[in-house]
Every structure is written in structure tokens, then in C-alpha cells.
Amino acid sequence: MSICVLRAQMLPCKTVLSWTRGTGNRCDIARLRKCGVCYVPNLSPVSFPSRTLSNLATAHSGLARREMAENEALSRRQKVLTIDTMNANIKKVEYAVRGPIVQRAVQIEKELKEGVKKPFNEVIKANIGDAHAMGQRPVTFFRQVLALCSYPELLDDDKFPEDTKYRAQRILKACGGSSIGAYTASQGIECVRQDVSRYIERRDGGVPCDPDNIYLTTGASDGIVTMLKLLTAGEGRTRTGVMIPIPQYPLYSAAIAELGAVQLNYYLDEDKCWGLDISELQRSLQAASKHCNPRVLCIINPGNPTGQVQSRERIEDVIRFAAKERLFLMADEVYQDNVYAEGCKFYSFKKVLYEMGPEYFNTVELASFHSTSKCYMGECGMRGGYMEVINMDSEVKAQLTKLVSVRLCPPVPGQALMALVTNSPQPGEPSHAQFLKERTATLGDLAQKAKLTEEILNTVPGIRCNPVQGAMYSFPQITLPERAIREAKEKGQAPDMFYCMKLLEETGICLVPGSGFGQKEGTYHFRMTILPPADKLKILLSKVKEFHQRFTKCYS
Amino acid sequence: MSICVLRAQMLPCKTVLSWTRGTGNRCDIARLRKCGVCYVPNLSPVSFPSRTLSNLATAHSGLARREMAENEALSRRQKVLTIDTMNANIKKVEYAVRGPIVQRAVQIEKELKEGVKKPFNEVIKANIGDAHAMGQRPVTFFRQVLALCSYPELLDDDKFPEDTKYRAQRILKACGGSSIGAYTASQGIECVRQDVSRYIERRDGGVPCDPDNIYLTTGASDGIVTMLKLLTAGEGRTRTGVMIPIPQYPLYSAAIAELGAVQLNYYLDEDKCWGLDISELQRSLQAASKHCNPRVLCIINPGNPTGQVQSRERIEDVIRFAAKERLFLMADEVYQDNVYAEGCKFYSFKKVLYEMGPEYFNTVELASFHSTSKCYMGECGMRGGYMEVINMDSEVKAQLTKLVSVRLCPPVPGQALMALVTNSPQPGEPSHAQFLKERTATLGDLAQKAKLTEEILNTVPGIRCNPVQGAMYSFPQITLPERAIREAKEKGQAPDMFYCMKLLEETGICLVPGSGFGQKEGTYHFRMTILPPADKLKILLSKVKEFHQRFTKCYS
């Protein structure tokens, strides 16, 4: 056995476990028992089965536990950075979309790989809007251009259509040394910002858009956090208050916690298809103004996790409210192409603002956000995005430009992708037909799956699902038996977390409990993406149905 | 002329200027004069010559200036987000590497394009370590694999060597849906973290590295800011103090300002080749402990902007100091392959820490940072990076993992690139010879240019340049005539900013003044990259020489 004892008594067992996990070497348990410490010098890339690890842990547990505890306590006392001395705001951050349930799902996947028997063969991650991971194919045109940008020697290759080459050459020409490996302007490549601004103008029926108001970002999240950062000021009762919908996408609550701003909840009306009510905005604002300075109103449209699409009239109401109450508007519009329900249409806040006339268009401050991760693209891994700022004070804008320059530039492949999304193949160009076919198929597919999800969920007694008008999620309400709620609370778990955890363990389906997004006291939900392929989605929904019935029966 | 008046009196002239700048349309000045407002509906991608813009501005200035001022004052009063109400910490952020001198350089480039006559034909940006922009060619192997990952249909193509295909397939297999468009684990793709950890073990002669301690990042900057964020706590006299070298890379001062931590300067000794002196660390710490809680010690090795390479002994001293004073060590090691001077060698903090024995290796907390942007890669635009954390408290590590999950994942092309950098072609693999040739050529080239820069600069009376032992920059001291210093101060400019600005205007060479990095009171420097191609670098250096002589004469 390739094991040697190194400076006995020095390295705690935990370190050994962690090293051996990394190196894949077995550990001499007898020696470990004796001295409590050792290390493995031969580093080979075999992975270490978790069962062996747990045997190892058990073997240790008798003799070494006390020693480990002592070692840990000692090292805890000596550490500079501990849970008690770290940034307190970070501790308050929560992000359910990748929270404990997802960590458990990853663990279960590993167990399955190692041959642990489960009542299912695979984990289905319906927790996150990750289209490609769910089998959606990337758009050919995008990937051809990215390949050309990555390895320009391919520009001589006949396999690539002329319009992909033209796009790649245009992007490369705008890069230092004609390489996507060079830094770009911190605000983003100029010609990409021009593409974005022309896209916005087309989208909004000619409303002018200045490329100087476009900031390319590392996904929409980056833009949202940057704007909240600029807006957070004051102390105590003058601290910036940020109004967010409940249920919300937890990036908002996480960023607010990290920045030490004040989260102000306004509740969407589940009975009115997650509609937004101005009187509720008013209530939320009034309740807040005693203990902070409400300055920001965030809207997610189409809604995440709730899937509603705002009407034009409602957007006007919101804008009027923001103007009257002097709130900075942040419009999260990353699902702008994901509108499925009949009679629903996406209106950008910018367009509505413009059409409400100069009284609004010249005064209301707005930042809107878009991303390459959603819609028909689903290119989450590229971390592409942009924000457009309207009516931003020129001095603040200079500060924003300075702030983004510290991080040098957004990833260039993401910028290039944003150029392609906003300047996609046009009729007459060789890639147009295939591009259109792929986009239409993906969006049509999503529309069908939105309908399917709503329909099947609503056949389950105790599950009530609003129409999935847009975005990529259903957020049904679930009725939980009193006994389940009690048991969850005894375990210190949110009742819907208790439910989702059981669902995961029994079926392999990974959903996010409603408590991670916020919900009305006493109601319970889960968020489920509509992204799995239709046949898989059907199986998934029928498993959820069976589970819900079993769960209800078991706890009644 | 394609111009129409829209809602007269509503849109301030500034908006028009900014719109027309974006759209490239001409503006009807007479109309503008009359009503002060208008807008251009036809949006075409022609760019707007800045001379026309400045004519336009002049035309306006008489009649419209008052109106603009009124409009601006009005809109200022109404704005939610102003320079007075924004995040005060952001206002303190400075980032010289992309500061005013670079903005002016970009402006001059535009002027040259528009035909404005200058005493030079191009701007040479020696302000930033942007290798590809300076003509360095990307490594073929990296770009082939990236192209394959972007467009896996190319896996059937005979043009690509087998080892590029193998690497691409391995990365794709680790991605959800086999697409680099899927989100990855927030800490980074597991097999990439394994590659990184094996790379570190090889680099450090077998010192074990646990992939669980590796966090992939969006460039090194992301990791550095994330660590500083975790470490920032307390208020007033208990606020976290962060020791940084002076001169420093201004990401550090910027992040410290943004987080509201306390910047603690320790000065590098220019007379000892920018050496680090422990007594200076002690002085800095002592001075600080009255007004804050010093908890972090940042080291940049090889040095940026100063180019020195730390000896093994000095690193040991620093570690002993950190252990004694209970400081969290942050080692910025992004230039680890960029070591040129004879007798100099890169030692990682991790390796030295390990070899100092368990008394140190089990207690001293360390985070070290690396990047795909520097060394022989120069892939800045990909925003790839990693950090390794050593002896991090397990609860804090869980908080770190949670924190990075909010931003979902680092850009996947950057992660893929990091896998290639740390798992490069091996002897026997088809790409090995070319890879080695390219890497050797680039590093050899840099070594020559480091020598060349030092030698030529030291021929100039009034310029004194330490050996460029490593990294990518020279940071020579310049002697400025008293009269120049006075004139600069009268203008409210740092004297070396005054110098660099004149250099830019007269020669087109863009350098960063030493004041942007910090320097000993009364000394003046500039930072210049050694990246331009050798022939261009020679011209650049001779121009700097001429300029310095002219400047000295003129102000003597």
C-alpha cells in the first residue's frame, strides 16, 4: 500500500480524508488508527469510491473522533477567517436554485454512478433553466461562428456558410490583434453594442437606442448586481430599499443581502395568474418607508419563477407608479422571447416608457437586462448578457463605466454570441432557413411543454397550477397535509423543502421548493422547469403526480 | 435631411447629440437651434465624424447652452440615482490601467481614423498586459480544442489532431447535454478542477492538492475580489485591513475601496530591485493596528507593475510573518511562467508553505490565484482563472461555495481553456511538438524584450529601470524637472500623469503613470508593458527616449 506516515500528530484525519478523496489512493486504516494522521504521496487520477470513504470514516470514528475534534477546535481557534469573523452579509445570502436540494441531487448522482441501488436510474434536474443540459440543441449558426472566432484558420473551410464567415470576420476585426483572446472595451465591443442597439430598436418598433447606453455583461446576473451595487447607499433608516416581487428569482434577495440593502416584498396575486397589483406595490412601499429609503423597483417579465406575462396596461401602471414614487426601475427581461399563451405578448419597459411620452421617457430611470442564456438560445455557459440604461445621470454613468473597467471586460465568446443573437441571419443569407427552423422548433416545443405541464399538473388533486404564459417554469401551489407540515417543522425544514427532498429521494426528480423564492405565508409551491424533452417531461409529470398522491395519503 | 422634430422642448440637446453619435445621422442644426430638440428616426450604421459633432456642439453652444443647463438641472433634481445618492464606496474606486489616459488614447485613435493630423500614425497601447492585442499569436492547440468544443461537428474533421479531439470530448462529456452552453457546477467543472490540481502537484514537486480546494473563476480578478469580500468585516476600528504592496496592481485598491475595507500600504524597495522587506511589513502593520483590524496580506509574485521575482527565502519570511501576525495570505501568482532573469525562479507560496513543515502548512491560511490571461497564453478575453484555498475553515468554505453559486458558474470557454493550460499536450501526443515550439518561442521572446526594455531605458539620463525579472512590465523611475512638477500641480494633475499625457499627445504611446499604482512620495514612474513585437518595442523605446530628453530640456 502506497502510504507513508508524515509528521505524525500534525495532519488531522479530515485532511487525510480530503486528500485521499482527491488523489484516489487508499488509506492505511490501521496506521491511521494508530497515529491519527498520515498522507498519501502517490498521486494517481483514480477516483475514490464514496463507500470506501464512508468505511474509512467509520473506522476512524472510534479512536480518531476525539482527536479530530481537538485538532479542529485548535485549528478553528487559530484561523483568521472563520464563520464568526467573515463578512456577515455573505452569511445572509441564500440561493435556492443551487441550494441544499441540488447538492443532495449531485450526491445521489454520484451514488448512482457507484452502483448504489435507488428506486430510479437517473436524477432529473428540473431545478434550473439550463436548456442544453436538458437536451436542447445549440443553434448551429451561433456555434459555427464561435468556432470560426476561436480558430480563424477555419475561415478557409468550405463547410462554413458565407454569412458565418462574415460575422466571424466582423467580430475578429473589432478585437485587438483580431483575437477573441484580447481584452475588449470594458463596456463591451463597440460593434456588438451597435448590434444590440439596432436589435432593441427593431424589437421596440423604432424607439431609438443609443449604443452608449448599452453595457455588455457576464450574463444578466452581472448587470443586475452591478446596478444594485450603484444604487445601494445610506445607513440605518436611510438604507436603500429594493422592491422585489414575491415569488422572486433569488438572485435578487441574494444580491440585496450581500450589499446590505433592504429587501421590500410585494406579492404577486396567485389567484389572478400571478398578476401585479398597484395597490400591493403601494402597500409594500408604505410599510417600508418607515425603516428605509425605498429607491428601486424590480420587475421580472416574463416572470421567474411564476411564468406570467405582463400586459401593456399593467406596465404603464408600474411606470406611473415608479415616476410618482421616484423609484429607479429595473426590468429583468431575459425571457423576452419565451411567451407562449394566446393573447400574451412581450412589451419591453423601454417601449412602453417611450410611448407614454416625454414626461415619462425623459425622466423615469430604467435599467433593463437581457441574456444569451434563455429564450431559444439557452447558452447559459457562455455568460453573455447586456443591460441598457435609460435616463441615467451622466456622472453616475461615468462611475458605472469606471466600475466595470476594474473587471476589465465581459468574456469575449459571450460578447460574440450576443452579437449573433442580436444580428441573426437575415432572409437571403445562407444560414437563414436553418436558423429560423431551429429557433421556431425550440420555441414551439417550449410552448407545447408549457401547456402540457399546466394541464397534467392540474389533473392532480392538491396541485393547482397557473397557466405558464411565458418564461421556462411552472410554479404550482401544493396542498400539504397538516401532519407533513408538523413533521417538517419538527425537523426544522420548510414544509415544501421536506416535500421536495422526499420527492428527490423517492423519484430522482430535483425541483426547488417555493420557500426558496418566497411565497405567501401558509402556502407551499415548487418550481419546475418545462425544459426536459416532451417524452421525459411526461414521465416526470406522471411521477410527480404519483408521488403527490402517495405523499398526501401517507401523511393524511 | 432625415430629421424630424419630436415633442419639441422635451428632449435636451445632449440626448440628440448622443443619439446622433450612435446612429451616424446628421442633425438639422437650424431646427435644433430653434427648438433645442429633435430626433433622428433613420438609423443607419454609419459612424458620425467627431469634427461634425464638435461643429454641432459649437453651433449649439450659444443658443442652446442655457436651455441644456436648465434641462440638465431639472433632470438632475428629479433623478433617483445621482452622484450624491449613489454608493459612496464606488466613487472612491480608481483603476488607472483603464483610466483617463486610456480614454484619451481611445479618443485619439478615433481622431486618427477620421483623418485628424497627428505627429504619429497609430496609438501604441503599452498600458495593459494584453498580449494578443500586441500581436502575440494564440496557442494553436488551445484554439483547436475551443473550436471543437464550440462546434462538435468538427470532431469528424481530419484537420484536427487526435489529442485536440480527445481533450474536447473529455470536456464536452463533463458538460450537461455535452454542451459548453450548459451551466456547470458553480465551483467549476469537476474534471477541470482535477486537471488544475494535478498541474499544481506537478508544479510544486508533488505537494498534494485537493480538487475540492480549487475554485474556477472569471479571470483571477474574480477570485481576488471574492476572497476580499469574504474577508471584509467589522466597522470603524475593527474594519478589516488589507496589506498591499506599493506599487500595486490597482485591482486591489479598487476592490478594497468598493468593499469599504482599509488599504494598508507596504512599500517595496526600489533600490533593492523592488524587494520586499519584512521590517517594512512590520512598520505597515504597526501603523495600521490603531485604526483597523489588519487581517489580510496580499503578495504579487512575480510583481505587477514592478516585475521582481521573490526569492524562496523571502517567501519563507513572509509566511513566518503572516503566521506570527495571524494574517490571511493572498498570493497573486498569475505571472508564474513569466520569469526571465538569470538566477530567478518562481516558487509558489503553497510549495514553500508545505516545505516549511506542518506547523505552517496546517495553520497558515492561503489563497493563491492564477489566470489564463498571462504567461505564454495571453488569453485575456476568455476570462479563465482559478484559485486554490489552503486551510480554509470548513464553514467558511461552505459559505464561499454558496456565494459563488449565486453567479451560477464561470464562463465555460474559460474553464475549458484552463483545462488545456493545466493539461497541455504531453510528449508522444500529436500536438506536443508544435505546442512546445509556440510556448518556448513566446516565453523566449518575452525574456528578450524584458532585457531590451531594461537596457534601452537605462541609456536615458533621468530614467532608471530595475531589471525586469518577471511578469510583463517595466516600471522605471523618471526624474522630472521642478518646473514640470509645478505646472502639473497647477493643473491639478499628478506630475507623472502630466508627463504620460504629453507623451501620448506627442508620440501616440500610451503608458500608465506610476501614481495609478502608488509610489513613494516625491518619486515618479510609469508602467510600460514589454509586449509589443520586438521591432515595434525598439521604436517605442527610442520614442520614449527622445520624448524624455525633449521634455527634460523643455522644462529645465
Automatic annotation (TrEMBL), chains A, B:
Single annotated GO MF: L-alanine:2-oxoglutarate aminotransferase activity
Alphabetical GO CC annotations of the entry are: cytoplasm
Enzyme Commission identifier(s): 2.6.1.2
| Cofactor(s) the protein requires to work | pyridoxal 5'-phosphate
Top-level division of the source organism's lineage: Eukaryota
In the record, biological process GO terms are: L-alanine catabolic process
ATP-binding among keywords: no
This chain's function reads: Catalyzes the reversible transamination between alanine and 2-oxoglutarate to form pyruvate and glutamate.
Q: Which family does it belong to?
A: Belongs to the class-I pyridoxal-phosphate-dependent aminotransferase family. Alanine aminotransferase subfamily.
Q: What is known about its subunit structure?
A: Homodimer.
Q: This chain belongs to which protein, by name?
A: alanine transaminase
